Amino acid sequence: MELEAYREAAEEFVAELTGEYYRHYAGLKDGFEIESIYERHDELFTRAAVEELREQSAAPTPGTDERRRRRMLLEFAVEGHLGLATKAVDAELARREAELSIEVDGERIGYRESSVTQANERDPDRRERIEEARLALTEHDLNPLHREALERRHELAQELGYPSYRDMCAALRGLDFEALYRQTEAFSAATEASYAGVVEPELQRVLGVGFDGLRRSDLPRFFRAADNDARFPADRLTDSFIETARGLGIDVTAQAGVILDTERRPKKSPRAFCAPVRAPGEVYLVIAPVGGRDDYATLFHEGGHTGHFANVDPALPFEFRQLGDNAITEAYAFLFQHLIEDPEWLRRRLGVDDGGALASYARANRLVYLRRYSAKFAYELELHGGDDAGLDALADRYAELLSAAIRVEWPRQTFLSDVDPGFYCTAYLRAWALETHLRTYFRHQFGPAWFENAEAGETLRALWHDGQRLSPEELLRDLTGERLDFAVLRDDLGLA
Questions:
Q1: N or C: which end of the chain has fewer CB within 10 A?
Q2: Please, are residues 411 and 211 in contact by the beta-carbon 8 Å criterion?
């Protein structure tokens, strides 16, 4: 295999696939035409290509950039090998999600748009009806396809010689899943006693109910936090982000190739995303505005991704610009997202002088998400453990774990749709820990208003410049000398 030719072809594939992802999920086109893209590049993902890259990835000296690049290429090839086999199912899933709709109280609502409608709905009973209709579609129209794709990925992992899909993902990413599981379980146990005391007052304030009256269908409304809309005005949304970036010495409006897509479209995915078609050079930031705080959270999160990919050194190898450990880019996204709950940022950017109440809500919100993802990780370890014969029983296991973590009855119907390929939940978990370390570092080095410090911006751009060359553990060690530890999140929440 000629590695340089493979790398060039791989970069072109990523650009085509990411561009198609953007157009479909931004609601600009109905079809999700990934099959033809895979067919044009199928030589990248053959079994022979995977085996050759596996052999070559072990050749360079450990710790060198060439070793990193080849490991990233191997992970890319394996993911593509699985994607090639499931491309038709994935395309059909996307098509159905875009075309399906539910009917609630005589109103027709698009499947994807329904979660936005639910978050904006004041009536809890109607929120429940929206959820029930969406769950029915998930179970009957989408889960058979989710299952087909999942079982095929599991089968292919074993055909490649891995004991299970779980073992394959851990090996390709160089992660110790058991060590991370011990950390997340310790976090869940350590926050069990304080969970209700942190979250329930905010449930009462936002929804008017405590855990006794809480339903899963209420959570989108809770995360929407509509009572805070006045403090997060729509007309300040984009400007506040631009001003924040400018405080760091970054002119977002002058960055070539950065496109901000905030237009509402019926078939636009409610899940905000950043699509780095080419990093740097062509980076899309996409959100579906819901209103209030949630719009700020999603814009700043995806803005962190966009800043990262738009400022990557163009001279870096393809692998470091667009592959690597996504916990890195997620940490930058959370670093920006966290600003909207920072009292200093709220005062300077939105004129909010009493940020204490907003901070209490943000603390509860974060705790819910951290416990939810810890439970999701525990579930996925079981889901991807290698035995698909008991797959049906895992729907109940999924509901059991999530219900216990969040203390609300969790629907079993989403046991397959609530799973991102490749254990992406581990990227979020490690990113939350890394972000906490980074935020502490920036505050210590540049003060509480670090987001208005040009030197902080230079430090951030230097980190962004390096793409995803390093792992989160390596980045933190080089920056501060610390060890990445999930326990830092418990301390950051004041729950030590």
A1: C
A2: no
**pLDDT recorded at residue 481:** 95
Stretch (H or E) spanning 90: helix 65-99
Map residue 53 onto helix, strand or coil.
helix
The stretches of 100-247 forming alpha helices (DSSP H) are 114-120, 124-137, 143-159, 165-173, 177-207, 219-224, 237-247
Q: In the chain, where are the structural domains located?
A: 3-173, 177-255+288-492
Maximum distance among all alpha carbons in the chain?
A: 64
Tell me, what's the pLDDT at 264?
Answer: 82
Burial of 7 (0-12, 13-18, 19+ CB in 10 A): middle
The residue behind tokens 């992992």 is 157
pTM for the model stands at 0.92
The fold adopted by the segment(s) 177-255+288-492 is: Neurolysin; domain 3 (1.10.1370)
Query: Is the distance from CB of 321 to CB of 467 less than 8 angstroms?
Result: yes
| Residue 395: predicted pLDDT | 95
What residues in the chain have per-residue pLDDT under 50?
none
Which residue is listed with tokens 């409006």?
Answer: 253
